[in-house]
Structures are given as C-alpha cells and as structure tokens.
UniProtKB/TrEMBL annotation:
Keywords for this protein: Secreted, Signal
Protein name stated in the entry: Ripening-related protein 5
Similarity-based family: Belongs to the kiwellin family.
Superkingdom assignment: Eukaryota
Amino acid sequence: MAAASALGVMAIVLLVALSSSPVVASLRPGLGVCRASGYLPGLSGNCVKSNDPDCCEDGKRYPQYRCSPPVTSSTPATLTLNSFEKGKDGGGPSECDNSYHSDEEMVVALSTGWFSNMARCGHRIKITANGNSVYAKVVDECDSVHGCDDEHNFEAPCANNIVDASPAVWNALGLDQSTGEQDITWSDGDE
C-alpha cells in the first residue's frame, strides 16, 4: 500500500513538473500558454533602419517563440510597421509568394505561430484599431524563431503576438506611423 501511495505521489510530482516546463508549455498553444522556447544569441550587422526596426546587438539574448496566443474573433496583438519593398527593412521577398510588395498594398506578416507553416498565406485578416477596421492579405511570416542575420535584416526575432503591417494598413487605420507600434485586435477575415 505504501509503495502504491509513493508511486501516486511521484506521478503527481512528475505531472506538475512537466506541466510547468517551458518546453512543454510552448507546445500547448491551445491552452493559451505560449512561452519562449529558447534564446537566440544576438549578432549585429547591416540593419536597414527605414521603419525603426529592432536591430540585433552583439551578445544580447533574444527570446524565440514557436507558438502564438490562440486566435479568437478578437485576438489581441501588437501592430508593427514594415515595408515589404525590395531594399527596405522587410528583408527578403515575402515567404508566401516569393515577391516584394508595394508600401501601397494592404499586406501583413504574422508571428510564427499565427503564420502556421504558411497555412494563412493569401488569406485576409481583419485588423481593428481605435474603432476602425480594415482587411489585409497575409503574405509573409514575422519570424519569431530566427533573426540576427542578413535574411532577417539583422533584426531580432518577432514577439509571438505581432501583426507586421505595410504603411498602407497603418494609413487605412488612420494610425501615426511614427509610433511604430499599436495595440490592435485581429481575426481571420471572411470579406
């Protein structure tokens, strides 16, 4: 009886330990938990600063995320400003179509978890800020795992809750681009 009781206690301790592990927690996005899955060592380089990007610093550690918070009909996020034009701060061509996009196009990149291995490519999302709503097409991933290299403009990995939007999206929402960030909500669009 004592051995069975001890096994039961050990099993409970093991379950508690595993459930609070960052690695396991990062794999449970359905529970609303999304923690850093690792850290990327910073490496500075030629960071194009056209939209005040978060350029990497040598030796700094940057969190990496393989998940994002759950998507709802009103998902809280941070809107950031990004140019998808060649030679600007967006880095290489968009992942969905291997193309660059004009700053006049209503396009966005989503954090890695929301990008969902290209599952949202070409889909439209609805973005709401300050009572205004617009639709934009997903064309790229705001990489939450990789960064601090030429492909990512020597920028840090994105946070896990980013909608990285073109100037056209900011303008359509009536937002001041000089702020660089804006609290928003978004949802999968069906326009």
